[in-house]
């Protein structure tokens, strides 16, 4: 088999990591939480980073009127289907060895990634801005939206939002498919 | 003139300095001279850092066990064991009331002397700590996952559970020797008939390897002496337990004279492996006995009292090889076995010397039947045959000895108020340091096990006097921390203690796996409400059961109506939190017992009997959140016989 096919298919298969590892992680640190609070965001679910973290985040958040973190969201049905479809398509495309199809797959994947990040941003926005008007603590002008990526101070908490293993595997996969798409082109030029 | 003034000025300044110096000397407490200059840095534990050791100090007449960090001496927790504790609702809530049940009913206090850690292969293992109730003879087991008392067993046929609960090498048994001999079975006889009619029972409490469940395996019926302290053998002496005796004179009045006449009393050596053989052969008598075994479950969050009615008793006369007496001068108090299990130190409290027996020689003397005679059918060995050595004139009033694992022993001397370090084998005194005021027990973490952590020594003083700012006629007792890592002991720290600390145990913090919460899903309390949707009020005749939940920062329900005077209202409060150290309290106005302090995931029940109609506030007693003060509710109490509808609610805001 041609080397670029192998590289492409391996790259595509790395997306399977999204079913095994979390995609993203949000951590909340404050002096009174020695172990910090955190949640892991998967393409199928949100889980506690340490036992009961989400319960405790919800408990804390209700003082400022934030809604409970929803554990059943429509994304958790859509994302796995989309990723599965892209993996199946990717493998088929990989076997064709067609560079144009490689490129198309890569671009679609990037667009999906951007769409996913935008969806994540909207989710964070909604979560941080849609506050219960009867909340016990109201701070004029204060929003509680966590950062899309990086760290941000929210009242007494330092909120950090970073990609997790799943996202790193996906990135590595995309790099591999990118290499598979472009490296053989280089060879042609050399010839 | 100016010169004269200058001279006067110099003179007066000098005088002032002298006077101020002198007065300082008068004010300063005693015993600052032997504190080393770097003591503060040696006991300083930076904020955010943990102590290296846990120290468990008995509370004596407080009936509690206190937990300290070493080397800081910071108080970490007080664990109510034999005493009711309104702070935590222990003994007041329905779940823990059975823990203090005995054959004579509810006993809400005791005199708790000797904590003893569980051991595996002679080493402390951090699973449980046991402690004796001396007065109403009992042994408690405290779980070191939760730091809560989880089992108490009563000891029948005992007159005072003092020589207890010294564990065997693998925690096969903890022992419970009676301090006072009494008629067995108890009977109404003249006290003057003491000699011969009074007996001492030495009990062996089995401990289940996995669950820790205690059971009274057997008792050895001994002559009517006083059994003071004990220690179990280890290594080569594994399988034996040693009990000190005093009053081998069998006196029953003015004991300070009557029980101090014999030059030698005994250490009773019990071969418990032999006892197991006799039990297996059926050479025991099963005698009637009334006692209880109370066990608390972390799943139901409730204790249950089991009533027991018989005990297996072994008579040493009918069981040759079970008991030997080792003559030891004079009224020995502590009996301490060195880490190897070879040396048995008898601390004769009225003796001028310290007597050390050799276990090898004891076995040899037994094998060759080198007996001096017998007492009540029990062979008495010859002291000169079993003696390993004598520490000559080490001090006055030796009480207890612990070991550092480097071949040194440390003994407390009550009368001369000091800790003396001496060498095993050569019996020479290496160092002595004053303790301030009469010292009792001492503790080295693991110092009575096969593997001591010989870094620190804690001496427990019986009297405090000028160690702290005065607080009226009564002051806390004091513990003193010494650095024993070098050749000379160094006094590092004084710290106050709860009640009167008798004995203590210490263990490396790394050996203890402490729980952070109780898992709500594992809560099997019969009246649990695991979500607010489960909250309800159920009337069963005059009993009203409130299935209540608490979470930051409200109760569900928070309004209850339809309670009547004469009702027994059971508030079963479940703490829905699953976050470390977020307990909620629960109190209702004019409750005549106590409050509740409910740990995350736990259910506790307060029984409330309202006396008069009216509105009764209830609230959280443990500051839990920014809205703690809002964590409150009301109970409406109607007169007996009225027909107020039973209803309850939470979060129903009137829209009008």
What's the topology here?
The complex is a heterodimer of chains A (191) and B (656).
Chain A: H1 3-13, H2 17-20, E1 24-30, E2 33-41, E3 46-48, H3 53-61, H4 75-96, H5 99-129, E4 150-154, E5 157-163, H6 165-190
Antiparallel strand pairs in A: 1-2, 1-5, 2-3, 4-5
Chain B: H1 2-27, H2 39-43, E1 53-58, E2 64-70, E3 74-80, E4 101-102, E5 105-106, E6 116-120, E7 123-133, E8 138-143, E9 148-154, E10 161-163, E11 173-178, E12 182-183, H3 194-197, E13 198-207, E14 214-222, E15 226-232, E16 240-246, H4 255-258, E17 264-271, H5 272-280, E18 285-297, E19 302-314, E20 323-329, E21 332-337, E22 343-348, E23 354-358, H6 359-367, E24 371-375, E25 378-381, H7 383-386, E26 387-391, E27 398-403, E28 408-413, E29 418-423, E30 429-434, E31 439-443, E32 456-461, E33 477-483, E34 490-497, E35 504-508, E36 536-540, E37 543-551, E38 554-556, E39 559-564, E40 568-575, E41 584-588, E42 596-598, E43 603-608, E44 614-619, E45 632-638, E46 647-649
Parallel strand pairs in B: 14-19, 37-40, 39-45
Antiparallel strand pairs in B: 1-2, 1-35, 2-3, 4-5, 6-7, 7-8, 8-9, 9-18, 10-11, 11-13, 12-13, 13-14, 15-16, 16-17, 17-20, 18-19, 21-22, 22-23, 23-26, 24-25, 27-28, 28-29, 29-30, 31-32, 32-33, 33-34, 36-37, 37-38, 39-46, 40-43, 41-42, 41-44, 44-45
Largest sheet of chain A: 5 strands, antiparallel
Please tally the helical runs of chain A, counting DSSP H or I stretches of 4 or more residues: 6
**Classification by helices and strands of chain A:** alpha+beta
SSE order of chain A: HHEEEHHHEEH
Strand residues, percent of chain B: 35-45%
Largest sheet of chain B: 11 strands, mixed
Number of strands of chain A: 5
Can you count the beta strands of chain B? Answer: 46
Q: Which regions of chain B have little confidence, pLDDT < 50, spanning 5+ residues?
A: 9-27
Summed up, the helix count of chain B is 7
Structural class of chain B: mainly beta
Residue-averaged pLDDT of chain B: 93
Q: Report low-confidence residues of chain A grouped into runs of 5 or more.
A: none
What proportion of the residues of chain A form beta strands (DSSP E)? 15-25%
Shape of chain B: globular
User: Which bin fits the share of residues in helices of chain A?
Assistant: 40-55%
**Looking at the chains present, what oligomeric state does this protein adopt?**
heterodimer
What average pLDDT do the residues of chain A reach?
92
What helical percentage do the residues of chain B reach? under 10%
